[in-house]
Structures are given as structure tokens and as C-alpha cells.
Amino acid sequence: MSIWRYIFDHEFLQRLDIEDLRSKQTNLQVNAGVERRKLRLRITELEEELGEAAVILRAMKELMLEKELCSEAELEKKLSDLSEAIAAERKAASPDQTREKNLMRECTRCGRPMPRNRRECMYCGFVGEGAPVS
Description:
Elements: H1 3-7, H2 10-66, H3 72-92, H4 95-102, E1 104-106, E2 113-115, E3 131-132
Antiparallel strand pairs: 1-2, 1-3
């Protein structure tokens, strides 16, 4: 085999590319596993903090009712009012979601959402126009 044939051996180059891609895939899988473990740990920490907060709130409610700082009906009314206020704030803050929805359309083949500026579906590869996401 001549040196030129060895240098331009497409099979050799393809094997190198395949090995490089396999190495990169392995690295990505390892990194994804590490990130997944970090996220699971953080979720566990947040669940524990939420449990502690729930216990504290329950204790505060019982203490308020025992000391007769307010009645249970007043407390329920205040919680209801706050819930409505929070819902109104979230609804007022949702134009970003509306804007994001307007940037999306639905693939006519698989039905999944896709950005309006893409011609090809990221999921099924279909090239064509899609319906707006409602």
C-alpha cells in the first residue's frame, strides 16, 4: 500500500471519527450521570426544606388559633384572598408564556411543538408548515 493510499484511506478516517464520537458519547453520558445525581440530591434537600416549612407553618397556625389572635374562618379567608392575589399576579405575568406560545407551532406529522423559525421538526424530521400551538 502506498503512503498516499494510506493517508487518504477513507475507512481509516471513518474509524477514527467513529472512535472519537464514541469517546465523546461516553464522556457526555458520564457527565449526564453526574448532573442527574446532583439534581436528585438537590431535589431531596428541597423536599426536606419544604417539609420543615410545612411543620413550622402548621405550628404557627395552631399557635395563632390557641392564642386567639384570629379565628379559623378569618385565617381561611386571608389564605383564600392571598391565593386569588397570587393567581392574578401569575396571570398578569403570563404574557411571556403567550409570547413563547406564539413563537411555537405544531408539527403536522407528529404533533409536537416546534419553533416557528425551524423548517424541520426536531422530533420526526418532517419538513413543512405546522399549525400554531394553542
